Structure prediction request, 377 residues.
Amino acid sequence: MDLSYTPAEEEFRARLAKWLGTTLPTLPPKPSPDDWPARRAYDTGWQRMLYDAGYGEVHWDASPTLRLIFLEETEKAGAPYVGANFVGLLHAGPTIAAEGTPGQRERWLGPILRGDEVWCQGFSEPGAGSDLAALRTRAWRDGDHYVVSGSKIWTSHAEVADWCELLVRTDPDAPKHRGITWLAMPMDADGITVRPLRTLAGSAEFAEVFLDEVRVPVANRVGAENDGWRVTMVTLSFERGTAFVGEVVACRRVLAELARTARDNGRWDDPGLRRRLGRLNAEFRALWRLTQWNVSEAEASGSVPGVGGSVFKLRYSHARQELYDTAADVLGTGCLDLDRPWVADRLSSLSYTIAAGTSQIQRNIVAERILGLPKGR
Ligand SMILES: Cc1cc2nc3c(=O)[nH]c(=O)nc-3n(C[C@H](O)[C@H](O)[C@H](O)COP(=O)(O)OP(=O)(O)OC[C@H]3O[C@@H](n4cnc5c(N)ncnc54)[C@H](O)[C@@H]3O)c2cc1C
Prediction:
């Protein structure tokens, strides 16, 4: 494993840093966190700027190492994160790139990279979260369409999405992992109702989605009929293995800001707090090294990220929670004010141990697939 950068990679880093230095000051102010149409416009506008400057492909066409450099430099410069098109850029797009036909790649990847189309993820259902293969949303063939009925829940950004990566049951008689199909569903099709759900932090970032005989062309199926579980594993390996990686750099920045604030407000005198900050610093540095190792392995084998992503997701989500709990200590009673920096992040940090598979599920995966322990009942 070689974790050093080549001259070409260092040249890419320097060119990107220079472009960010001149471009970021021209960006409009960030919209209010709860105005989703404005957030969509802002996030996709930024994606368009990246695309026009030749950085669109970093999400999946470029080498994983260039992608890490991209994440480091954009975060260091304070550039916007992917935001509303998280699903399109970080897991639907990579899945289509890996599993789609040439026609599907041609149809969907360009619009995602240009910021023209936004995707959401319709995997979870009221009775199928951790046990995702228990999903019951049905799809049956009618000529060259699937007709889909059922419901999805916790669908992030459903209100502003153009497409949904949707899991449906196409063979109710097959064993539960074998009767599933992965479809790309247009969100403007007849029969779709989106009902926003408000979170503890006050934002309606996800929704319930009800599907009543929605017609989806058979041509929108990624992978074979009833082979959707295998395609889903590809999607989840991107979701757990690479989608959160950029945020580690952001957490390191927050950590440095916390230390500065603690020095200014006198909290730095507390040795317990200093120890926590030091331990978190070591943890985020280790997570970055783990990411480089995962990326280096995926690059060497030329495949999608492996189950090492579950180790990353598990540790990252807990380190993030500890980071914002420490922020509350630094803020003191200021942590009761939702308008202060870090307070909403603290409320939402709990959700990171649930989204993309709970910590208990990641531990099961690590135990069974990495450590080779017996499967639980
Ligand atoms: C912020 C956020 C955004 C999300 N966005 C999306 C999205 O865009 N699209 C989407 O499809 N889904 C989304 N989700 C849903 C998420 O994937 C599910 O919440 C998650 O998979 C857990 O499923 P559940 O909520 O049904 O909990 P359950 O599966 O009911 O689990 C309840 C508890 O039981 C534990 N548990 C269950 N089974 C086991 C087991 N075998 N061993 C040990 N413990 C177990 C769980 O770990 C958990 O603590 C999002 C969730 C959050 C929080």
